[in-house]
Amino acid sequence: MGMGFNLAEIGARVRAYRLGAGYNADQLASRLGVSRAALYRIEQGDIIKVDVLESIAAILGTSLASLLGVGAEYHSNAASYQARMQQLEENASHIVALFSPLSYLLTTESYDHDLAIMLQESVSDTEQRADRQNEQRALLRTLSERRKQARERKPSITCLTSLEELRRLVTLGLVGRLGLPEDVVAKRRMAARREVQHLANMMKAEPVGVQIGLVEDIVPNVAFQLFYKGNEVLLGTSPFRIAELPNLHVGVASITSNPEAVDLHVQLFDRLWSICKRGSEGARLLEDMLAQHS
């Protein structure tokens, strides 16, 4: 296989789906009956036979079409979707996003520790928690790599978030589930306040290459991100939540270059951007909200 398909993109998808399925390279290579080096070459964009790609799709629980990038590609968990986001961000010159309540790339370093705790708390069953540990570690590793990559590459980022979602975040705190002891909740609320204040500080400082808009109205429940690379634009949509009461499995994320889908999301973002609060005005709204919940 090669003609008409971007082999590097196919390899990147294979790696993302592998991480999402919780396989390391040795495990998947063993399932396929190939060497680790052969799998590495596939993930780096070497020519691959269709029957091998079909076997990979079956093992990783996806479709041949998704691996080929025909139409849209679909992701059934946050780990594989985040791995794909990292790959797309690596080549993007401009990233446009709507995330509620937080965009991970705009959080503090301390957020990684809080998120790890929230992910552990979100799985109540002890046996299931053990099964999910590898997936959670892979997700956290990917997120950390995304942060490092963004700091090195410094892509232009334009991000929208919701005042009401941030109010909910401050009220609940950075918790993985409800019903935690009150002293724990109090600490998690302080951690949430730290993240919102950090966002307010960024809005006041207006760092080069970063624009943040605060929407007071209702925003979509499904987060989306537009990746601009030259004349090409890809759209990612996700129901997964990497914040309080995290959701890593319920729903399906997708990535597409379909012009209609891209255009509709560009129009939606532009409409929300036209009414959002930015700079010192947005920061003031956030700090007023924090004062109300002090």
Form type? globular
CATH class of the largest domain: Alpha Beta
The CATH topology of the largest domain is given as Endonuclease, Chain A
**SSE series:** HHHHHEHEHHEHHEEEEHEH
**What's the number of extended β-strand segments?**
8
| Helix fraction by DSSP (H/I, runs of at least 4) | 55-70%
Structural overview:
This protein is of the alpha+beta class. It folds into two domains: 1-70, lambda repressor-like DNA-binding domains (434 Repressor (Amino-terminal Domain)), CATH 1.10.260; 74-292, Endonuclease, Chain A. The chain is built from twelve helices and eight strands. The protein has helices at residues 7-20, 25-32, 36-43, 50-60, 64-68, 78-91, 110-122, 126-153, 163-172, 182-205, 259-275, 279-292; strands at residues 73-75, 94-98, 156-162, 210-215, 223-229, 232-238, 253-256, 277-278. The protein has an eight-stranded mixed β-sheet with strand order 1-7-6-5-2-3-4-8, sandwiched between helices. The protein starts with 6 loop residues before the first helix and ends with a helix.
